[in-house]
Amino acid sequence: MNVVLASPRGFCAGVDRAIEIVERALALLGPPIYVRHEIVHNRHVVDALREKGAVFVEELDEVPDGATVILSAHGVPLAVEEEARRRDLKVFDATCPLVTKVHEEAKRRHAGGDAVILIGHAGHPEVVGTMGRIPGGCLLVGSPAEAETVRVPDPEKVAYVTQTTLSLDEAAGIVAILKRRFPALKAPSKDDICYATQNRQNAVKTIAGEVDVLFVIGAPNSSNSNRLREIGERTGIRSYLIESAENIDPAWLASVSRVGITAGASAPEHLVREVVERLRGYGIIDVREERTVIESTTFGLPRELMSIV
């Protein structure tokens, strides 16, 4: 059995930054450091930070007055920031800069008088955060069917933004419908789907013709990981989303000679190594990495955190 590792895979710059913010805050200020929502969608990452003293909460009312709280990489509604200021919480914002870019684009379009359509999945924390940045919210569109029926006050004044972790193909199909219905539709100044999401999706497409089955390492609630699995399935490969090597069913490997492996943007590389080691027990002959692009993007830490000595 041969293994092909898709590359790039795993942690992106936004995830690296978010984790480093929590670790640096713990090192400089000491525990407990509160984190609103999972810092990234991966229980292995969350558990490791919890062991170091991070306390994960879903809402700020679980945080004591005056405590330190970190906002997750997915971003939050403006009301959450306002509540933190009102309660004198010390806040470090770990929102991915690419998500912040979507917030700023949506706010700019709204301020210019456009109705803002947000292409994304209802209930996802990033979508909730973006919706909460626009007075009255955005018009949420999550499927081609919804794109066909969404109504705007003025078809001549409408713009769209997208969740950063969507499938490129999924988003393109929805945008095409919106452009047909609203020819004056304004696009983002730069693609909203993040570079890492695009790169990982392209890497899966690259190895699709070389493997019989695909393992995507990621959490069930990770949007970008689910999109990788879906892309694998659309190319005709049996594709499984797994959290770790423990989730591999040996029956999935029956009559399989080539296994593809990738990992979502919030999955640590040690999980990939553990999956490869598990597969060695089933008779791996060769492990090869298929690299499509080298990523060099990095994001700086919040100034407020860097100023602590």
Any key phrases for this structure?
alpha/beta, 11 helices, 309 residues
What does this structure look like?
The protein has 309 residues and is of the alpha/beta class. The chain is flat. The chain has a five-stranded parallel sheet. The termini are far apart. It contains eleven helices and twelve strands. Helix content is 39%, strand content 18%.
By oligomeric state, this entry counts as single chain
What is the residue-averaged pLDDT?
A: 96
**Uncertain runs with pLDDT below 50, 5 residues or more?**
none
Structural class: alpha/beta
Return Rg in Å: 21 Å
Helix content: 25-40%
Instruction: Characterize the main sheet.
Output: 5 strands, parallel
Give the distance, in angstroms, between the N- and C-terminal Cα atoms: 52 Å
- The helix/strand series, from N terminus to C terminus, equals EHEHEEHEHEHEHEHHEHEEHEH
Instruction: Report the principal-axis shape.
Output: flat
The total of beta strands comes to 12
Strand numbers in spatial order across the main sheet: 10-9-11-1-12
Taken as a percent bin, the fraction of beta residues is: 15-25%
Number of helices: 11
Short recap of the structure:
The chain is an alpha/beta fold.
Write the SSE topology.
Elements (H helix, E strand, L loop, with lengths): L1 E6 L5 H17 L3 E4 L6 H10 L1 E4 L10 E4 L6 H9 L3 E4 L3 H15 L3 E5 L5 H7 L7 E3 L2 H6 L8 E5 L5 H14 L13 H13 L5 E5 L5 H12 L3 E5 L15 E6 L5 H12 L5 E6 L11 H4 L3
Parallel strand pairs: 1-11, 1-12, 2-3, 2-4, 4-5, 6-7, 6-8, 9-10, 9-11
Helix pairs in contact: 8-9
